[in-house]
Write a structure and sequence with these properties.
single chain; 86 residues; mainly alpha; 79% helix; globular
């Protein structure tokens, strides 16, 4: 599984919370389209993880992409923990 695939899988796990907060459609579109534009639209409603996903999708080098992927995954995992009061 590539770094970007890992990131999109992690972001998809937030769908339940996005639905509950009323921006599920844009979150779903982001996870389906896997583009910077879709991530930018989702980040207007939600977590900074979507903004990091946008950066990961657009970076030119593997090193930069790995940084943004790891950041997006960490941020979405933190958001899920907060929502679950962990």
């Amino acid at each position: 599984m590539s770094d970007l695939d890992r990131m999109w899988d992690a972001l998809a796990r937030y769908q339940l919370y996005a639905d509950a907060d009323g921006y599920g459609h844009t979150w779903f579109v982001m996870c389906e389209q896997k583009t910077c534009l879709a991530a930018a639209n989702a980040s207007a409603y939600s977590t900074a993880a979507a903004a990091a996903a946008c950066a990961a999708a657009e970076t030119a080098t593997a090193l930069e992409s790995t940084y943004w992927v790891d950041l997006a995954i960490w941020r979405i995992e933190q958001a899920i923990k907060e929502r679950n009061h962990e």
